[in-house]
Amino acid sequence: MTAAPADLSAYAGLDTCVISDAVDALGEPGRPRGVVLDGLHAVWAGARLFGRVVTMQMAAGPAPAGSVHLGVSAIRRAAPGDVILVDNGGRTDAGSWGGLLSLAAHAAGVAGVVTNGAARDVDEAWELEFPVFAAAATPRTARGRYHELTSGAPVEVQGARIETGDLVAADGTGVVIVFQDHITAVLERALVLARKEATMRTLLERGGDPAGVLDGRYEDMLTLLGDEPADDRSAAT
């Protein structure tokens, strides 16, 4: 496998749909290249993110005496451009991310947060233009209810094992994870798909017949691409 590039900026314009399509195109039975996390949405309109995952797992109950608040360890572990992915088991009865954490993460250069739990202080995230994706929003605090169990360790979200170093992309459509061993292959295939879709979009904008543009070649596009190289990155910008 080709090592994933350290600089992913050339791919940052790819949307979640084309990345998900690339995951499907390259997947094999029992050996997926990534996963879509269902039911997670931006807490403010227009949010989007793209970066390497830093994991954080939460557990029920008050924080141990003397420990820092949940999220602090993950923020300290993250490098600029990373995305914190919070595993709270889908529980939405209290926040798993909040406004002061958004402020601290934003100041540290973190690219955003994805949580399979609830977020709070949504307006503060919006004012910061700090991307947060969650299963729900709530004003209820996690203090005394949940605490950070680990950061950096593998987590299981919606049945998928997600590790620090995986790739996450999120936008108005949803959230998709690309497993780190397949980042290069998936993103290169996504660029090919994006270029083909850009051509189709141009034809439709010019009044092209949808039946001709979106014919069987479009329906079978994921399986017919073969090993076509992705040397034109203009569709990703």
Report the portion of residues in β strands: 15-25%
What value does the Rg take, in angstroms? 19 Å
Query: What's the quaternary structure here?
Result: single chain
The topology string of helices and strands comes to HEEEHEHEEHEEEEEEEHHHH
Mind telling me the CATH class of the largest domain? Answer: Alpha Beta
What is the total domain count? 2
Report the total helices.
Answer: 8
For CATH, the homologous superfamily of the largest domain is named as: Ribonuclease E inhibitor RraA/RraA-like
**Averaging pLDDT over every residue, what do you get?**
89
CATH fold category name of the largest domain:
Glucose Oxidase, domain 1
Number of strands: 13
Question: Low-confidence stretches at least 5 residues in length (pLDDT < 50)?
Answer: 226-237
CATH architecture of the largest domain: 3-Layer(bba) Sandwich
* Overall helicity: 25-40%
Largest beta-sheet details: 9 strands, mixed
Q: Structural class of the helices, strands and pairings?
A: alpha/beta
